[in-house]
What does this fold into?
Amino acid sequence: MIYKRSSQLFSEAKKVIPGGVNSPVRAFKAVGGEPIFIESAKGAYLYDEDGNKLIDYINSWGPLILGHAHKPVIDAVIEKAKKGTSFGTPTQLETKIAELAVKMVPNIDKIRMVNSGTEACMSAVRLARGFTGKEKIIKFAGCYHGHSDSFLIQAGSGAITFGTPNSPGVTQGTAKDTLLATYNDLENVKELVEANKDEIACIILEPVAGNMGCIPPAEGFLEGLRKICDETGILLVFDEVMTGFRLAAGGVQERMGVNADIVCFGKVIGGGLPVGAFAARNEIMDHLAPVGPVYQAGTLSGNPLAMAAGLAMLTELHENRNIFESIDKKTEYLHKGMDKVLKEAGVDFTINRLGSMISVHFGSEPVTDFDSSARSASTGKFNKFFHGLLEEGIYIAPSAFETWFISEALSYDDLDKTIEAVRKVAKTL
Ligand code: KE4
It folds into this structure.
């Protein structure tokens, strides 16, 4: 593959944009090399500035579950744009998408639109603190909820003490209110709850993790968290920015049958435009301004173009529930195909999968939490795997800590091409 034009564009970008990108993971720092500049996309394919065609397994990090430039979504945005782009007033479109989301997702009465997953999770934590009157939160190492200060925290000195900032600019004052737990480790959560009795507002997690690679919840893990929250009055916050409207129409709450108290959304709900959202039962949501005292706001929240894209996307998913089974089946097919060719090559690997989320990890141990994911990533094999696939025209996330997102636009021919590329690359690992 030739990337001359992308390289030129990257040099220009770095002069006026930090690192040449508007979001760090796009810069290929984790895998080495230079990022590819995309000129257009359609269905399952990206077309880069050098004319290369790539089979896309990132899909803008999850939103494009129906593929790129999906006609109903594009048409909805074009039609809406002719009538103006933003009013800063209520519009009936916001009510329509809110009504549909409430119909699709179990256990929510109201939803508030924001502009990103970060905003959704940040606002959900503020709402949980406002509702409970408590200040501490528990998050899990390796779970990513966006770049709000309370989430940029790493393990503290003691196993059950508060965290420390993992980014300059985050204060110790903020970090002291974030407790860090180990994913899939209920005993650790119980210890943290016991050691911080009556001080915890919420436990927030990705109910199926996608930021350590794909890590499904262990048997009983979500149910155990639900039980702890029921016994202590701590709110359970599901960050479904990745899983919402992907693992089922009603997300993980529907698929796994475990209810959260607050659910966060992003990605799919916006159909590729900037939308985040958070939702809960009336008792909690009515604490939000202007009804209640918990403040939260946004100039472009509920923006007409974003709502038009999101409504078109959710409507198609709502009316064609077979899509969820179809992308799950495609993901299972890909899993089986990659498993076969990686085994034939004698590679030590693990493939994690749940629904249409899948990730490949190198090494012999199971990947069930952040530490095991990090040990697998440290082998360096993923970086060779990434670049080898790229050379074959297969575009997966440029980090071992990401998940692949399967879109309905992927054909079985695309999947076969991907499996064949994995077979070729496996020999080089
Ligand atoms: P945004 O603020 O990037 O819209 O959403 C933050 C977020 C919240 N929760 C989960 C579970 C997420 O995965 C994300 C964002 N995901 C990353 C990919 N791992 C977005 C890619 C990027 O940072 O550029």
